[in-house]
Structure formats: structure tokens, C-alpha cells
Write a structure and sequence with these properties.
The protein is of the alpha+beta class. 19% of the residues lie in helices and 30% in strands. The N and C termini lie far apart (55 Å).
Length: 304
């Protein structure tokens, strides 16, 4: 039966395209980048002094009128990390820059904004998971050690499949408290989201953490333990893999992002109909006292 004109057969209809873009990319949840202090690296090998003198575990009494004897004293030693270079390249054709896009944004400007977010997320991932430091000899890339590699004293591999518990957190805190001065132990526990869910289910010791005017905390809780209070921070870049799920107890005051070159836009030479450039940065993780931190791995992968 003829019904005249209907939408199904009218191919001349314009599309319905909203000028609204909801970007849900998981790029902006970067706790360390947002909360660690900054420092300046003046060479590709960044160094700083460290010292830790252990408490006496025994004493020797002296007889009346004793003669003083000299013992070797503890001098500071050096710790270091190499700077690493990260980049994020943007290239947009001349034709694309003239196109009318739904968002109404200049495509080059839009891609540069995205690239900067991607670079920051790369920095965050490196601060957590940077591998063993490397000098970049023989033309290789220098590698900055991240928190996962920096922590060397208080490292514990739990039996595969261990569950997070109040006792586990207390043990981690006690381990650092024993070897550090008053108030210098770890204050922030970085955890994968699955373990964060487990901790949020504790019926004691846990409370919500309020934001501060100069820091963004997002879904952070506090744990009140025998050695003090710590923040529980869920982190997207902390491993949550069966048998190797990891947590890090850190003192944020002992870590800084040391920039040799802060992130900046660098136009690149073009040989065609496009604009080309990149954001580039060179930095390292400055860890003033890794003894104030602890790493435990081997936990089971909690549900997320």
C-alpha cells in the first residue's frame, strides 16, 4: 500500500550528530603527578646524599676512669637515578584542520590537549612501574627507576594468593616504623582497586579521607594502625594480577619528580600538507630515603 513519503526511503535526510563529546579516557587519575613535589635535575645522572644509622641493640658499660676509644663513624652515601625521555607526537593533516567536526574544536588543538594528558599518564606510569635504572650506554634509552624498583630494603614476596587484611597492613607499617625516625615512616599505601575494595570492607580502622584545598585525593580512605595513620590510595597503575598484585607504602615527602626538562611543545619539521610536533619531557624519580617505604607483592587478584 502506497503511503507517500516515509523516512525509511528518504536517503536525503541529514544525520543527527550531537556536538557533544564525552571523553571517558582513563588518563587523568594521576595521584603521584598531582601530589608529589618537584625538584630540578641538573644532569642526566641525578644524585643526592642519604644516611641511616641503626639503633643500638646492645651497650657496653665503661669502668670508672676509662680511656675513650674512637670508632669509625657513618658518613652519608650517594643515591641516584637516571633521567628518562618521554614524548607524545601529534600530526594532523591540513585537510583535517579545515574540516567541520562535531565538537567544533580545532583538530590540532584538540589532539595537542589529548597528547598532553597522555604524556602525563606516561609519567605517572613510570613513577610507579619504572624498571631498573639504566644509563643508556651504547645508544640505548636511559631508564629511570620507579617506586617498584627503588624500594629495595623493605621488600616482601607474600605467598601467592594471600588476601589483604588488617594484619597485613599493620605488618607493613611496623616494618617501616622499626627502621625509621619519628614521623618518617610511610604515610600512603598505593593499592590496586581490587585491594582497595577489600580494605573498604574492613569494619574497623578505616575512615573516609577529606580533600585538601591544594591536593586532590579522590576516593581515598585512612587506616588507623598501631604505628599511626596512613592514606589508602587506589591507583590504576599498581599491578592487580593474580599472584603478583602489589601494594606500596610510601612517604610522599621522600619522593619528588626531578625535571631535567619540563614537558613542553616542540614543533617538528614538516615536508608535506600537515602540522607536526610533539610534547617532550625528561625527568627522574628522586627518592631521598627508600628506607621509609615498603613493597609487598604476591596478593591474590581481588575482584574489581
Amino acid at each position: 500500500m502506497a503511503i507517500g513519503l516515509q523516512t525509511y526511503t528518504d536517503t536525503s535526510r541529514r544525520e543527527d550528530l550531537l556536538s557533544i563529546l564525552k571523553d571517558v579516557s582513563p588518563l587523568d587519575d594521576n595521584y603521584l603527578f598531582e601530589n608529589l613535589g618537584e625538584s630540578v635535575a641538573q644532569n642526566t645522572l641525578h644524585e643526592w646524599p642519604v644516611r641511616n644509622i641503626p639503633r643500638a641493640t646492645s651497650v657496653t658499660a665503661r669502668a670508672e676512669g676509662f680511656t675513650a676509644t674512637v670508632t669509625d663513624l657513618t658518613a652519608p652515601s650517594r643515591s641516584n637515578n637516571y633521567t628518562m625521555i618521554l614524548e607524545q607526537v601529534v600530526q594532523v593533516t591540513g585537510t583535517e584542520q579545515e574540516a567541520i567536526v562535531a565538537t567544533g574544536k580545532d583538530p590540532m588543538v584538540d589532539q595537542k590537549q589529548i597528547a598532553m594528558r597522555q604524556l602525563i599518564q606516561k609519567i605517572e606510569f613510570s613513577l610507579v612501574n619504572g624498571g631498573a635504572k639504566s644509563s643508556g650506554a651504547s645508544g640505548g634509552a636511559r631508564q629511570a627507576a620507579g617506586i617498584d624498583s627503588v624500594i629495595s630494603t623493605h621488600v616482601t614476596a607474600r605467598a601467592s594468593g594471600t588476601s589483604m587484611s588488617i594484619t597485613e597492613i599493620e605488618d607493613i607499617m611496623e616494618e617501616v616504623w622499626t627502621d625509621t625516625g619519628k614521623g618518617l615512616g610511610g604515610k600512603t599505601l598505593l593499592v590496586p582497586f581490587g585491594i582497595n575494595r577489600t580494605i573498604s570492607g574492613f569494619t574497623t580502622n578505616v575512615t573516609n579521607y577529606a580533600n585538601q584545598t591544594d591536593k586532590l585525593f579522590r576516593n581515598i580512605r585512612t587506616f588507623q594502625g598501631s604505628a599511626g595513620e596512613i592514606k589508602i590510595v587506589p591507583h590504576k597503575d599498581v599491578r592487580n594480577v593474580a599472584g603478583t598484585s602489589t601494594v606500596y607504602l610510601i612517604n610522599e615527602d621522600m619522593y619528588k619528580i626531578a625535571y631535567y626538562r619540563k614537558p613542553k611543545w616542540k614543533p617538528l619539521a614538516v615536508s608535506g600538507d600537515y602540522d607536526l610536533g610533539m610534547y617532550v619531557t625528561e625527568f627522574t624519580l628522586e627518592s631521598l630515603a627508600e628506607l621509609t617505604s615498603a613493597k609487598r607483592t604476591g596478593y591474590k587478584k581481588e575482584a574489581v
